[in-house]
UniProtKB/TrEMBL annotation:
InterPro entries registered for this protein in UniProt: FA58C (IPR000421), Galactose-bd-like_sf (IPR008979)
Domain F5/8 type C residue range list: 1-150, 156-307
Name of the protein in question: F5/8 type C domain-containing protein
Pfam families: F5_F8_type_C (PF00754)
SMART domains to which the protein is assigned, alphabetical: FA58C
Domain of life: Eukaryota
Amino acid sequence: CRDPLGMESGAIPDGSITASSYQSAGVEPYRGRLNGVAGGAGAWIAMHRTIGEWLQVDLGEMKRVMGTIIQGRHTADQWVTSYKVQHSADGICWTTYAGCDGLEMIFPGNVDRSLPVTNLLDNPVDARYVRFLPQSWNHYIAMRVEIAGCDTSRSCGDPLGMESGAIPDGSITASSFLRAGYEPYRGRLDGVAGEGAWVAKYPVIGQWLQVARHSPSYINLWLCGAIGRVFVPDQWVTSYKLEYSTDRIIWTTYSDSKGSEMVFPGNVDRSHPVTNQLDNAVDARYLRFLPQSWHNHIAMRVELFGYNTSRF
């Protein structure tokens, strides 16, 4: 889900690219296409060198926006050195992209006129309109851009290795386990080895099942779904939270659009899997399932779905 959405290719028409202002003929908003050299100047250039200028792209329909690429002016040493991103579904109500700390994100920009700079979003957004808001620049506000993403109907992704065994036993850990046969690595979707699930030692909130990806080519993954199911008779998790991390030190609890920690619905029996897709995928190497309620005891088997986050 990291396809170019049409700035460089021209799939986005000129009329769908607008701006707060432009300096003169030849530097209109539609000149702001990645690797574009038309118009003489080879970029969109704002009329004013002040914060508040913006370049806007109408994607034509709702898309899942995964990242942005920016580039400087083709013919002169003019480029944007930092910028914010706003997104909207209707072109009226705008949201400034923020980090996990709730602060508006300032993305690093260019250091020269030609080398593109890519910034992936930690939490992708669904939007039709995307705005680039320069915060600092070299000489003039001059930009060429691309937006990366995919259709919002794109599937959640591929299984990431719990059921298949691609995730090794040693990468599956937990706060505790009941006894031999209930170890964390028993918590694989459709697994029937041992007692057929990870079972926590203590039936209390605070227990967790953790999955890590250690292969160098899978350092970060878009975690966009999870399934739970257990084999142990009449024991299952009925609700849970998710935490994610890139380093196992700083953890973030997955939250809804209002900033409230999300509690996902769990199982209603021992055999039927329950799938929960994240509204906004997250970039993480480690994921924890935190049971919040359960039937008889905390028992889980899980799978993750997503994509590798290799750079553009």
